[in-house]
Q: What sequence folds into this?
């Protein structure tokens, strides 16, 4: 779930909550008691399950660009701020300039809704699994995982925001239990690492906003779009995380595909249901920074 902001799998709360994904929730949880904000660091990584099929990259070599997107092609997915689910008609869509990752294309089958589709995140939910979420992010940063020092959710100094650094951080942090070790996976034609984790039995979140306090743990934030909010999980909730470096010539960007599920047992069925959307992901030929 997402504390302080993004909600996904089980629900802890949306805006104003911290991003704890409890029982399969990516909800937001309120900012912890005031504390000095540390110097932002870098972050992020990913996990196993059904191996996505390889989607070919555009023939043109991607490059940085601020040019408007072409008007032809798939319909633009409506922009929704974080909140209630919005049913999505089945079909192929593209992200517009105000959406997450302009130019990204994807196909959504019947029976899915979006709780967010703005510049900070694409959050999709199967109607038969309201507690689960398929989350698309980019350029995430690792955060303080608990509130024992009053700084939960703040960018963690000393962790680079590259894919290898974030994956390594996830596997070495005691507040997480790794259920499936990192393995190579290809999504949207780019190779990355995928792993699955949950909150460790020894985690001490030390913050009452955690529904399963003390068994919650914060993972990431997007400093440029999420403000003080961050993503966290708790209880039996699990996150299967794919992270990869985007193949653009501009500054390095990291792409994330996350399955946030209410339990390890639920993840298997949810992964099967979400796989067609993951397989349909297509990267734009150029990177538009919005």
A:
């Amino acid at each position: 779930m997402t504390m302080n902001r993004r909600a996904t799998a089980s629900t802890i709360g949306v805006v104003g909550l911290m991003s704890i994904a409890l029982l399969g929730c990516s909800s937001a949880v309120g900012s912890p008691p005031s504390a000095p904000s540390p110097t932002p660091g870098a972050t992020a990584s990913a996990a196993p399950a059904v191996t996505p099929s390889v989607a070919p990259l555009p023939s043109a070599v991607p490059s940085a660009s601020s040019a408007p997107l072409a008007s032809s092609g798939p319909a633009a997915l409506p922009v929704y701020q974080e909140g209630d689910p919005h049913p999505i008609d089945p079909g192929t869509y593209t992200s517009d300039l105000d959406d997450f990752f302009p130019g990204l294309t994807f196909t959504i089958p019947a029976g899915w809704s979006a709780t967010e589709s703005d510049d900070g995140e694409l959050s999709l939910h199967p109607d038969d699994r309201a507690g689960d979420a398929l989350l698309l992010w980019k350029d995430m940063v690792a955060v303080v995982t608990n509130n024992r020092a009053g700084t939960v959710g703040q960018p963690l100094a000393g962790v680079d925001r590259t894919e290898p650094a974030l994956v390594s951080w996830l596997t070495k942090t005691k507040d997480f239990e790794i259920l499936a070790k990192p393995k190579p996976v290809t999504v949207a034609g780019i190779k990355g690492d995928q792993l699955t984790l949950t909150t460790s039995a020894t985690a001490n979140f030390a913050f009452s906003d955690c529904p399963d306090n003390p068994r919650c743990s914060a993972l990431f934030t997007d400093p440029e779009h999420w403000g003080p909010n961050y993503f966290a999980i708790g209880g039996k909730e699990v996150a299967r995380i794919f992270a990869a470096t985007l193949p653009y010539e501009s500054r390095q960007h990291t792409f994330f595909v996350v399955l946030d599920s209410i339990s390890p047992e639920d993840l298997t069925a949810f992964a099967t249901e979400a796989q067609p959307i993951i397989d349909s992901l297509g990267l734009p030929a150029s990177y538009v920074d919005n």
In short: Confidence is low (pLDDT under 50) at residues 4-71. Helices lie at 163-172, 264-280.
